[in-house]
Amino acid sequence: LGISKYISIILVKKGFKSLEEIAYVPKKEFFLLGLDNKTINTIKEKATNILFFNKTKENFKLICKNLNLEE
Asked: How far is CA 12 from CA 6, 15, 16, in A?
């Protein structure tokens, strides 16, 4: 995610195990970790963007396969 090692450690210690959790867990859960609103928004936005990119990439590969095209 391109976040500090400190924040990464906090997230892992508090049980966050996936980008989906980071992207979709309510913001109030992050406030309980002592993170500020700007940091929370940045982390959630980065996680959401990565998930979107990965899904878009999967869909592109599937379309290419169905059309017998190479990527």
From this structure: 10, 5, 5
Q: What are phi and psi of 45, to 5 degrees?
A: -65, -45
Which residue is it, tokens 């989906």?
A: 20
Q: Both tokens of residue 31?
A: 């406030």
**What sign for the dihedral angle of Cα 30, 32, 38, 39?**
negative
Q: Which residues contact 10 (CB under 8 A, 6 or more apart)?
A: 33, 34, 35
User: How much is the pTM?
Assistant: 0.71
Q: Tokens for 25, please give them.
A: 């867990």
pLDDT band at residue 57 using 50, 70 and 90 as cut-offs = confident
